[in-house]
Amino acid sequence: MDLFEYQGKQFFAEYGIAVSPGEAVETVDDAVAAADRLGYPVVVKAQVHVGGRGKAGGVKLASNTAEAREHAGNILGLDIKGHVVKHLWIEKASDIAEEYYASFTLDRSAKKHLGMLSAQGGVEIETVAETDPDAIAKIWVDPSVGLDEATIRAWVAAAKLNPDATEGAVELLGKLYTAFTEGDADLCEVNPMILTPEGRVHALDAKVSLDNNASFRHDWDAYDATQSRDEREQAAHDKGLQYVGLDGEVGVIANGAGLAMSTVDIVNQVGGRPANFLDIGGGANAEVMAGALEVINNDPKVKSIFINIFGGITKGEEVANGIVTALGRVTIDSPIVIRLDGTNAEEGRAILGRHESDMLISKPTMLEAARAAVELAK
Ligand code: GDP
Ligand code: MN
After folding, report:
1. pLDDT digit string (tens) for 169-216?
2. 10 Å Cβ neighbour count for 199?
3. Hey, which residues does 308 pair with through a beta bridge?
4. Of 54, 144, 177, 184, which sits with the fewest C-beta atoms within 10 Å of its C-beta?
């Protein structure tokens, strides 16, 4: 679950990380009232689940009531990379001497936590990684050992921050690691982490993603309540499907996250554009399949549907029967191309073969099925 910046800062504050005071609001009047209370200058900040808000005009300094009103009016309703701004965070402005980058995330292949620290903050870390990779100091932390102060100190030295920032950075990074681990986050990113002219180090931005699997150990209801999914995603979520909306024309249904990703890739590879990622999980029964087809069918951009199933524990004939039963329950507007392989695939294809038509086509390989689905979407 991704948090808004203001929630990320609440989360940080619980672990003692220094952040600026501020108020979350939803209207221009409330924004102005909050700014007046905080005292000028303030920063008016768009709250959306996407980075690069500053560049998109979603972060503005206001030095008086009139400017606060103007910026709040301009930023509310602004579309930032497809995310419409409904919440603002009004924050007491900070003086900045330097901007740094700090984050903890999980390096799955190393099976360790990865810390990244750079003296080049404020810009996107992907850009730094491309233009000046040596400017990012990385550490890998064994979760069963943890991170001690001496290691953090060496890390800060390697990142070549201003010596005035050393003590503050060591303290903040220690707390950030605690927040990351005890708080069950997948990502804790501070960009920028700033050094003020008075020599204090604090978090000026917060990007936090929490691990939903750990929600039972925390009280995250307040965060969850503000999660805004698009309609398609909400419908899929309600049906317990793993769905991510994309903006192409080929609807994708696959079993297993890996296969679903490969399916999205192959649609792209043969010149098509996937409308979504959808993983129906292990059991491709009629109910799950009907739900998945319904979600895809409700997407007006979809012109064809590619069902890619590899039968493992679920046998081919069960999958095929599931699809046929599902098609009896929901009316589908777009042609469907199915690739069915794995356990008892022959039996499954025989069942599908009896229902073949212009609207239901079976192909023996993933590549042929992808090509057919992409062709039908044109
Ligand atoms: P992002 O663009 O979505 O990453 O939003 P940030 O919160 O990181 O803000 C973008 C940039 O705005 C920062 O890198 C700062 O340069 C600037 N900024 C944000 N808050 C302040 C502030 O309190 N004072 C000053 N002077 N600049 C700020
Ligand atoms: Mn930022």
Report:
1. 999 999 999 999 999 999 999 999 999 999 999 999 999 999 999 999
2. 12
3. 254, 339
4. 144
Residues with CB under 5 A from ligand 2 (ion): 191, 205
Alpha-carbon gap, residue 43 to 182, rounded angstroms: 30
- Do 21-92 and 231-377 show the same overall fold? no
Instruction: Residues 98-221: name the CATH superfamily.
Output: ATP-grasp fold, B domain (3.30.470.20)
Q: Do the bridges between strand 59-62 and strand 242-245 make them parallel or antiparallel, or are there none, so unpaired?
A: unpaired
Q: Which CATH number is associated with domain 231-377? A: 3.40.50.261
Rounded to whole angstroms, the Cα distance separating 193 from 203 reads 5
Residue-range domain boundaries for the chain:
21-92, 98-221, 231-377
Which of the four pLDDT bands, split at 50, 70 and 90, describes residue 102? very high
Ligand nearest to the CA of 121: 1
List the residue whose alpha carbon is closest to atom 11 of ligand 1: 54
Residues with Cβ within 8 Å of 352's Cβ and at least 6 positions away in sequence, in order, are 320, 323, 324, 338, 340, 360, 362
d(CA 48, CA 187): 16
The answer, yes or no, to whether any atom of ligand 1 lies below 6 A from the CB of 364, is no
The tokens for 344 are 């008892």
338-347: per-residue pLDDT in tens?
999 999 999 9
**Binding site membership of 204 for ligand 1 (Cβ less than 6 Å):** yes
Alpha carbons 33 and 27: distance in angstroms, whole number: 10
* Model confidence, pTM: 0.76
Q: Is 53 in the pocket of ligand 1 (CB under 6 A)?
A: yes
Could you please state the CATH topology (level 3) that the domain comprising 21-92 is classified under. Answer: Dna Ligase; domain 1 (3.30.1490)
What's the gap between Cα 57 and its chain centre? 21
**Residue 233 — very low, low, confident or very high, per pLDDT cuts 50/70/90?**
confident
CA separation for the pair 271, 127 (Å, rounded) = 28
Question: Which residue, 26, 67, 74, 31, is CA-closest to 53?
Answer: 74
Residues 331-372: pLDDT tens digits?
Answer: 899 999 999 999 999 999 999 999 999 999 999 999 999 999
For 196-316, where are the E strands, in sequence order? Answer: 201-203, 207-210, 242-245, 250-254, 276-279, 304-311
Ligand 1 centre and the CA of 96: distance in Å?
9
